[in-house]
Amino acid sequence: MPVAVQPPFQTTPAYSRTFIPQLWSGKLNVKFYLTTVFGEIANTAYEGEIKGMGDNIVINNIPSISISDYTIGQNLNYQVPVPNTIELNIDKAKYFGVNVSDVLEYQAKPNLMSMFTDDASKQMAIAIDRLILLEEYNNGAAANKGNTAGVISGTIVLGSDTVPVDLSTAPTKILDVILGMASVLDEQNVPDTDRWIVIDPATRLRLMQSPLQQAYLTGDDKSILRNGKLGMIDRFTIYLSNQLPKAAAGFNPDGSANGAAVKRRVLIAGHQSALTFAAQITKTESLQNPNDFGQLVRGLNVFGKKMLKPESWVIALVDK
């Protein structure tokens, strides 16, 4: 007689007892970045070697060197650059745990490992995407948001909680917002390359209905399934996300109700220099299940983030 199976165990597909920690860790790290938006918009230049929570990565800022006028025969003044560092704290962690039954004694199948690592990395990415976007969306420079945005002009309309940009007024309105966000970065002397913008599905619909339409949106049929990449507009690589926070008078940043009836949508744009991110699958291990015949497989991911250049980060608030 077959052995009875207690939920939530399933006999199809069969689980396997085979476990290689190094393989799991490597596959999770690779697939983790392939399934994220933040893996595309943040830089990982300072990731280095992370051993656990509490680690610090010290980042040296490049000092600004003064330029002076010169006349023949004058005495030269020499500037002493002042050291300036920022610490990236690895102060956050998330984990996964899988219960693998020994009763279902089948040999490992190649797609079984992919199934576990795919789902673990995808769920990890979703959780961290949500956290980063929620905590960092409003940390750009003061001149990079609102209805008087622009560090030089102060005339670029990007919306506010009380007066968001109404995208329904004209088909070109969404293009006006995107071009305005690009202009804000231009006024901050942000490089043209490595710029990105993250939009939600409703804004994408407006964009596809605009005069720009599909002709200028390029991309392959696989990339959007993995990292949300849509194409490019005015030096921005466009990414799609369902996890952008909502903001409104009386609403919490995550969109949860707090006494108001109207939500706004947040669009985020910037340059890869703005936000740095570091993560590491520091531990993957297998333990004997003390309560059943089988193994407990678990993994720990520690990470940290830091806004390095708020002048390279811009938000727009648009009406629902």
What does it look like?
The chain is of the alpha+beta class and 320 residues long. It folds into two domains: 21-59 and 83-135 and 277-307, no CATH class; 141-275 and 310-319, capsid protein of prophage fold (2-Layer Sandwich). It contains six helices and eleven strands. Strand 5 and strand 6 form a beta hairpin. The protein is flat and about 80 Å long. The relative contact order is 0.22.
Give the arrangement of secondary structure elements.
Elements: H1 21-34, H2 38-41, E1 56-60, E2 85-89, E3 92-101, H3 110-136, H4 173-187, E4 195-199, H5 201-209, H6 223-227, E5 229-233, E6 236-240, E7 246-247, E8 264-271, E9 275-288, E10 294-307, E11 313-319
Parallel strand pairs: 4-6
Antiparallel strand pairs: 1-2, 3-10, 4-8, 5-6, 7-8, 8-11, 9-10
Helix pairs in contact: 1-3
